[in-house]
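Handout, tutorial session.
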Amino acid sequence: MSKCPHCGAEVQFQPGTQLVHCEYCGSDFQPEEMQEAPKKGKKVATEQIKGNAYVCSQCGATLLTFDETAVTFCSYCGSQNMLEEKMVSQDAPDLIIPFQKTRDDCIKSYKKKVSHSIFAPSYMKSQPVVQKFRGIYMPYGVYNLSYKEDCVNQGSKYNHRSGNYIYYDKYAIHANIDSTYKGMSFDLLSNFYDEYSQSIPFDSRLAVPFNANYLPGFYADSKDVPIGTYSDDAIKIASVDSTNYFKHKAFYRKYSCSCPTVPYHVEEKKLGFFPVYFLSVRDQKDDKKLYYAIINGQTGKVVADLPIDFIKYIIISILLSVPIFFLLMKLPTITPTAIVWFTILASIVCIFICFKQGGKVQEREARWDDKGYDYYLRQNQVTDAKKSRRVNLLRKKKIKLSQYIKLLIAILLSLGVVILHPVDDLYYYLISFASCILILFSFYDLVKLHNQLVSRPIPQLHKRGGDEHE
């Protein structure tokens, strides 16, 4: 990798200054100044980049380094067992977005987000955890789409009415379209969840031609999903956007063409390295669960999976609910019967929330819309039986049963006191208080669902590698 032109020492790219810095002699260089001139007839797409490969002995993830920095733990599973391999080479990407945010900027953004979550476990905010943030260049497919010719859509217009029949004239609506979409990007890693990558969008207009001098000081991963996997997604996004634009035009409304379409095609596909700060945190109670935090190294946008500490939740909830409960009892307009009906309504709302949350857990675990993961399943010849286990309906039913028992008991108790209609108000208050406690503790299952929703299993990346023929 690059050496300092003055002293020959290792250099690193500094996001804060956007310069390549030599710690030994203190020299700074523009990355472009250190770019070697390509040989005649040699294309950038066929250039190779070399780095040390570190393989995780637990999950199989591979990270590349481009200086003397050693990888001490795996960014994907948090394991400390990284094995160094020999020097490896891979095809250089076409584009790169250099890191704009420093690691300190990243840590500040993460701490700011976590500080807003009063129920987050304390270890998620601890200094040893935040120091594990690592800058990684993730492989992205960058797509340019266009349509520059005559586009035909069908429309109709009212003509006349005759008896019980209404006649419309059909029209072929021609439009000379000159439209392009540039820089749509999708990650090319099967284990980098699409919901993460789409939640931290990059401005690919700021990408520059690949220069290896942006790499020292950071890590990189290599794609294991073919770049053509997301071509249809890019076309769909462009088509929906253009439809929403054209359908409001008077010309299309005049002929009742409510859904004009433009048949875009992918004009160009490029491989890019995009900057991501990555953090994996193991659950302290279940070390097979991981929580991820991802920060866009260009814009600083944070996406973090933050679990809930049930002890914190129950203490704060009780501190808030008890005074509210007694305050409602003192209000003259609140009758004992009204309080009981309120607990019944609250129980029904909780059942609905639990049902919706359980569905979200199943959808996230299934990863139905993650094309990179689907490619991984096909590539590794995963059987249909294993695919079907992406949604475990039996476990879903068991979770719901444990949630609903407490809520159903609360509803039955409240209905019982309403039906029996005792004279003493004390019965209403006692049943209402008991129902509120049951509702409160039913949220223990909801907290478990939330923590399951935001957690990830330990990845298994032993078999990696995209389409080598692309």
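The second record follows below. Compare its token runs with those of the first.
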Amino acid sequence: MDKIFDLIVVGGGPAGLTACLYARRFGLEVLLIEKLTLGGTINLTDRVDNYPGFPEGISGKELGNLLADHCLAYDTETVYDEVKRVTAENGFFIITGEYNNYQSKSLIYCTGTKPKTLGIAGEDRFFGKGVSFCAACDAYMFKDKEVAVIGGGDSAVVEAIYLASLCSKVYIIHRRNQLRAVKSLQDKLVKMENISIVWNSIPLRIVGEKEVTGLEIKNVKTEEIASIPIKGVFIYVGETPQTELVKNLVNLDENGYILTDESMQTSTPGLFVAGDVRKKPFRQIVTAVSDGAIAAFSAYLYLEELKR
């Protein structure tokens, strides 16, 4: 692709879609590059109850589609490609994809995060065969069966509640003696009679031959080891920022998140970051779209400055 865009946005989640929407409204020539599906990981969320304007809640898939439709209504040029390399050369950004190369005067990087793994025996072996990071994707396979959810934050509780609507029993395995999820979610959780919380415990091993048959856990206080008979394990123990492609162009914090100023500017002029991949205290859909709008405005100001 020989065309030089004003702006390339990498990542089609809420942050990237909002960035494109605003950038197009500013009159910029924009290219959106997305690897899989517009909407990002919210497409994998069963229910979103905290996005303003939807008091009754909305499915993640529906919200993702609405954001994508709004973005594309501004004729945002979009390609589906996996970015393999990002470089900055002579004032331009070169994006090397699996299928093509792309060039722009500015860049907004919105690649988000990926789930952390447990690193225990059986996790890799049974991935896709009883081990999952997405209840909305795989819960149907465990209808009327017993499963375990690993974690105690918002995501773990949201997915445990969803799983409880299909599964006969849901165990939440949490290493502490209280959940980290917000109170409104915990209030919903306690009403679910088929959810049991196993406190102060960590997973040691996922057990099975051809399929998952159990989860071996250890109590971190008593060091007692026990086994829970289950058919599925859903893992929600945090996220890892996807920064590999730009780590030589930006500054990172100790956890690998990208450092920016309040305008979403990184240490490389013209390279902006938005969404969960950025260092910030609160990662929500609403903060991602805010980041995207600010990044687009900052990119517009940056490009205007180049004209002077």
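Points raised in discussion: The chain has a mean pLDDT of 95.
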